[in-house]
From TrEMBL:
Cofactor(s) annotated in UniProt: Mg(2+)
Protein name stated in the entry: diguanylate cyclase
Reaction catalysis annotation: 2 GTP = 3',3'-c-di-GMP + 2 diphosphate
Taxonomic lineage: Bacteria, Pseudomonadati, Pseudomonadota, Gammaproteobacteria, Pseudomonadales
Highest taxon, organism lineage: Bacteria
Family annotation (SUPFAM superfamilies): Nucleotide cyclase, PYP-like sensor domain (PAS domain)
Keywords: Kinase, Membrane, Transferase, Transmembrane, Transmembrane helix
Enzyme Commission numbers on file: 2.7.7.65
Organism: Marinobacter daqiaonensis
MF-aspect GO terms: diguanylate cyclase activity; kinase activity
Transmembrane segments: 12-35, 50-69, 76-94, 106-126, 138-159, 171-191, 203-223
Ranges in a coiled coil: none
Amino acid sequence: MSPAPKIRQLAFRLAVILSLVAAAGGLLIVLGWWGSIPILPVPLPDRSDVGAIGGFALLFGGISTATVFMSGQWRWLSPAAGTVVLVLALWGLVGGFPKGLPLDAAPLSLPSAATFLLLAVGMLSLRATRQLQVVATGVAALCALLVCIYKLVVYAYWFQDPSGRVLLLSMPPQSAALQALLALALLGHLVHRLKKPPGKAPGLVLGSYGLMVVICILGWAHFNHEESVAVRKDAEQLAANLSRVLEEHVYRSFDPIDLVFGEVARQARTSGLGSITESREEWRNLRATAESLPQVSALIILDAQGDFRLFSRQFPPPGGNYSHRDYFEAHKAGATRHLGELVAAGTSGKPIFTYSRRLDDSDGNFAGVVLASLEIGYFQAFYRSLDLGPGAAVGLFRRDGELLMRAPLLPDIAEQDLTRHPIYTSLIHQSPAGTFVGYSPYDGEQKLAYYLASDSLPFVINTVMGMNSVIMPFERRFVQSTGVLALVLALMATMMLVQLRALERTALSYDRVRQSQRFAQGVLDSVSPAIAIVSPTGEIISVNAAWRRFGQENGASDSTSHIGQNYLSTCQGAEGDHAEGADLVAEGLSAVITGTSKEFEHVYPCPGPGGERWYRMKVLPMSDGSGRVVVSHESVTELKQAEAALKTAANTDQLTGLNNRRAVIEQAESHIANARRHHHPLSLLMIDCDHFKKVNDTFGHAGGDEVLRRLAGIIRETCRTGDIFGRLGGEEFVAVLPYTTGDGAKILAERLRQAVEHASVTHDGDVIIFTVSVGVATLKTEMDITEVMKEADQALYHAKANGRNRVAVMAGETVSPEV
């Protein structure tokens, strides 16, 4: 079995398993909610939509499983059941469920309802046409899965560190887990029904769109992350501002009490405690002070034994000992200030808490306690003036978690205890201010709590905000962004399917074209010239077998021989010795491509391992009107070799192997023209073998020929690279010396004369010694080759007339003989 069927079969099995697991989970939740079975309740605090979530999961899982096994018989099952679920989801989203259904009457949370709607759309479209099936089912299932994954990831962060991250979705995690299983099951059904398109191009399309989908998902996640951070910051800032206002109110409430405490402590230290507690005048002053402070219910002074010594409401005070109270024990142990626990006042029955200070005598020993009983009604009135919003609350706590005041006020406020809450056991010891997300012990609702511990007094301000009010704006934007993501993914999926369909049609037409191309390629391969088809942009489209061999012989690295490369750009970018020829080819090729020329032909050399080769390049336009051209390279090496042989024979002296008269004069004319153009010197030597007729008469023509060949060799050895030399006829030779002045030519001529003088030729046992006379002339501006040779010939004549075996230089109108 190929990999694709195996993957589809695996997807089918996973879809069945996931559907059954989701149905089982939904059944477990429904039973735990409906029957209140102790072993089945949801592990988190109950929510109003737990029963609905379980019922939906059970219904979806059952439908998904039944669809797999009964799709051949009951094709209406999936659309009908999907429609039912869709209606129920909308009903639950808008106004809650009917009382008769085994579901909660309250509506679903926004994220839960939106996810179930996506799953319902995916279920409905599972039986649609292939294109709609891929778009609707795939996009709906993927978006539902992303919502669930987002919820589970955020919940995992919150579970690891409750104070570090806000749980920004009201859908419970068990709902997200079951919905994620259902979304995966839908994706498994989709994969099972689809078939992988053939070829590599669809894979590239799928990969590119997959990358775009990942980018969109990352953008969606980043947007929601930024939104969650903004929501948390806004909520924290609001709670922090409110906490600071409350802290300032507490300080302003305690400041006048601290002034009274300070005065009492001063008198106790200087005059003794009796000067205050035994004086009716001091009692009147304390009573007036207590009555002027609305937050103070009474002012009390206890001595070092805990006995009641002064009471602002009564003089003398009622008896009693309070040494057992926590504030008295704290001050006796050394505490300067202390906030007492919340208690019910003995006379009024209203809840109060105490604020006290230690008193010392003149020796610094414990002398007693001064305390103020504070009525929470004063603080309650101020807290009620604040706009707290739904689900919000503020509280005043001791640093050990004992509740002093809360708004809104609870009926059993004196019995509330948060001494083991993380805020008071650890968080305030790590940082004096921060946030904590958790469930309130008072109402069981999820709250965002901001705590602020005083740095000078032992109290903590706790501002609590209901998570429903915090997350409601985020949930709306979260669902909206998910909808936008679904639309974008649907658009991309539609474009992808259209492109895949176009690729399928292209593949079919490509097969037909490939058949015709094979026929044309067979024709091309049967032709001996190297042929390439070049596009209007200069790119090599196709080559024949001869071209591939041609490319391999010239160093191509693969058998395609530059297919796909731009022939025109390669010629235009050529450098080095072949740049001029490559530019010519580029111009000709471009002219044929653009239509300015009907054809182009160029013959060029091509060095190879076996020596230099020659090719004829021809460029002709194709007759199909496509703008493409045919480039052919045909070997003309044999023809060129024959032409070169004929040219060599025509320009070479057969006896000496030097240039003949015609070749020398042609090359000399070119060098003279170049010397005139660039104003550089040029000289010419006329060389004649002395008494050559005597050599022929003495040793025969064969001996004379040996002398001429020897003289030609000496001339070849003496002249420099770039000099032009040859035989004019008989015993007369000529040498053209470019870039050479008269003095330089005279030196070279003398070197030649001496070399000949010391040379000899052996012929038939006879040694032949010979000499030469040399005439030197230098080019003047107005001269041509004939005039230069004439002057050199005149110089040669003077050399011979003056005894031969010498060099004569033509200087102006006179000859300067050189021995």
